[in-house]
Amino acid sequence: MPLPVAQGEPRPQGRTVATFGVAAVLLAVGGTFVWRARAPVAEFGAALKLLDAAQTEAAIQALQHVVTRWPAEARAHYSLGAALLEVRRFDQAIASLRTASRLDSLNPAFANELGIAYLRNDQLDSAIVLFKRTAGLAPRRSYGHANVGLAYLRAGRAVEAITPLRTAVDVDPNDANAQFLLGNAYLATQAFAQAVASFDAALPHAKDSARVYLRRGVAYRLMQRHADARVDFEHAVSLGTRVADDSEVVADARRGLAELGPGRRD
């Protein structure tokens, strides 16, 4: 079953350009405003609107033009990298996001997005480094810690995933993604009771998640709690059949039910 995607700050949106303010658009020289920066700012805003409208390829072309004219603007490089990541052009996305992170090394969103690009390109060691940087820059936000744990899980290093995931749920106990990942880490290390507790903590915030029921069902089955496992597998099938992306979850849950057999009960 696939693990969740890495989480982070919202992707660039049209309103982002408003954060630049008038000072970013106008250069005051002797009381006279010089409008030299106006054109790239306007183009940047138009490109972000294309992203909002899901016109990703058009947005990429517009953003490539913006960063050529405005090479020192970190957010333009970040937006271009995020757009390239959407269309799986990983090497180009990484290059743009590295530029953004170099220009603004204290921005956790930039470090996090670069980590996501490395993760999706299976460069797991680099992803871990960037997610650790994200967690260091934003220690009171759960997503950086959770993404460190996710990268460790993807690398098959479940024991190392537990500490950052514990930190993530300490920072935000309502982070269902972090609780779910922690449950998977415990499951991989055969700490079944702790896995069930983490999946229990995820469910109030992810009641419609077939994945949570599936993984808790696996933990119950390994604990020989077959009746509880059956209930969770049935929930996973019921919920998963409503969502096209959950077809693999449904298949795994049905296999779990088949392994329990029709007459097995605690």
In short, what is this structure?
The chain has helices at 21-25, 38-52, 56-69, 74-86, 90-103, 108-120, 124-137, 142-154, 158-171, 176-188, 192-202, 210-222, 226-240, 247-260, and strands spanning 27-29, 32-34. The chain has 14 helices and 2 strands. It is mainly α and 266 residues long.
CATH superfamily of the largest domain: Tetratricopeptide repeat domain
Q: Give the strand order of the largest sheet, numbering strands 1, 2, ... along the chain.
A: 1-2
Count of domain modules: 3
Helix content: 55-70%
What would you say the CATH architecture of the largest domain is? Alpha Horseshoe
Rg over CA atoms, rounded to whole Å, is 22 Å
Briefly, what CATH class of the largest domain? Answer: Mainly Alpha
Q: What can be said about the biggest beta sheet? A: 2 strands, antiparallel
Shape: elongated
Structure annotation, total helices: 14
Mean pLDDT equals: 86
Secondary-structure element sequence? HEEHHHHHHHHHHHHH
Find the CATH topology of the largest domain.
Serine Threonine Protein Phosphatase 5, Tetratricopeptide repeat
Strand content: under 5%
What is the CA-CA span between the terminal residues?
26 Å
Secondary structural class: mainly alpha
- Strand tally is 2
Low-confidence stretches: 13-37
Describe this structure in words.
The chain has 266 residues and is an all-alpha fold. It folds into 3 domains: 37-104, Serine Threonine Protein Phosphatase 5, Tetratricopeptide repeat, CATH 1.25.40.10; 109-190, Tetratricopeptide repeat domain (Serine Threonine Protein Phosphatase 5, Tetratricopeptide repeat, Alpha Horseshoe); 208-266, no CATH class. The chain has helices spanning 21-25, 38-52, 56-69, 74-86, 90-103, 108-120, 124-137, 142-154, 158-171, 176-188, 192-202, 210-222, 226-240, 247-260, and strands at 27-29, 32-34. It has a two-stranded antiparallel ribbon with strand order 1-2. Helix 8 packs antiparallel against helix 9 (158-171), helix 8 (142-154) runs parallel beside helix 10 (176-188) and helix 9 (158-171) runs antiparallel to helix 10. Mean pLDDT is 86; it is low at 13-37.
